[in-house]
Amino acid sequence: WFYAWNQPTRLSAHSDTIVFPDMYANVLLAKARYYMWQFKDAPQQAAFALDDYKKAMKNMKSNLLNPQPKYMTDDRRYF
To answer: What is the pLDDT of residue 16?
Structure first.
C-alpha cells in the first residue's frame, strides 16, 4: 500500500488552477473571509470566519486522516 500526491506548481498565469478537492473549498473560502474581515477592520466577523475555518479544517483532517472503512458489519440479532 502506498499513497501518492501530486506536487503542485507555483501559480504564475491567470489560467492556472489550484489543485485542491472541491469538497474542501469551504476551508479555503473561510480562511480568505477571515483575512478579508481583518483587512476591513471587522473583528467580530473575522472571529466568526476563523471559527468556520477551524471547524472546516477539523472536518477535513478527520476525513483525510481517518478514512471510512471499506466494509460494514451488522451485529443485530433477529429472534
So the answer is: 81
CB 60 within 8 A of CB 24: yes
**What's the whole-model pTM score?**
0.62
Helix (H) or strand (E) holding 55: helix 43-65
Amino acid occupying residue 13 = A
Q: Are 35 and 47 in contact (CB under 8 A)?
A: no
Tally Cβ neighbours within 10 Å of residue 49: 21
Helix and strand numbers (H, E) in the chain are 2, 0
**Average pLDDT of span 66-74:** 74
Task: At 72, list the grid cell.
Answer: 460494514
Closest-CA residue to 7 (of 24, 23, 19, 16): 19
- Max distance between CA atoms of the chain, in angstroms, equals 66
